[in-house]
Amino acid sequence: MMDRIDETDPFKVVAMIPTFETPRLILRPTRLEDADATQALFPHWEIVRFLSDRVPWPYPADGAHTYYRDVALPAMEAGNLWSWTIWLKGGPDHHIGSVELRDLNGDNRGFWLGLPWHGRGIMTEACEPVTDYWFNTLGRETLRVAKAPDNTASRRVTEKQGARVIAIEERSYVGGVCAAEIWELTREDWNALRAATRSV
Hints:
It is globular, with a radius of gyration of 16 Å. The strands form 2 sheets. A 5-stranded antiparallel beta sheet has the order 1-2-3-4-5, with helices on both faces. The relative contact order is 0.15. The N and C termini lie far apart (46 Å). By secondary structure, it is α+β, with helices and mostly antiparallel strands. It is built from 6 helices and 8 strands.
């Protein structure tokens, strides 16, 4: 594993991660060139306050570029992070958010969406192929995510997928320390839900 990504070869680390298409969206593997749009859309309190305190705040002017170059792309190359940017069919000409899977105990999926696109069901739609990839391509048995109780929109995405709360832990977020719900979804439950949805 290399410490830094060769910026002259931005496709190297994403070759094995698929692109997904849904009715409204295209999910493309994250690349370094996505950093500018992330830098413009991501650093808003409404987006970051319920994210892990690993996210620096105030967000630095080169925060997105540094994260992609030094953290996300090396982890994707190592095979313990799968990251996609979310593109809305028909525009705009930049991505509008991101979703990622990661091999972290108790926190396997994370996402964010630019403020203008909140409340449209976009993240629920984006998480469907990503969650299916976790279970049925990567072969994982369980998916666990940590949610702040006040992060109602994010909790709804997880709840719609059939996950349930299995524990309460204290976690440190950008907005401070608070109790976090640990949600778990099993591959068996996910595939049963998908089968039921397809049969309707």
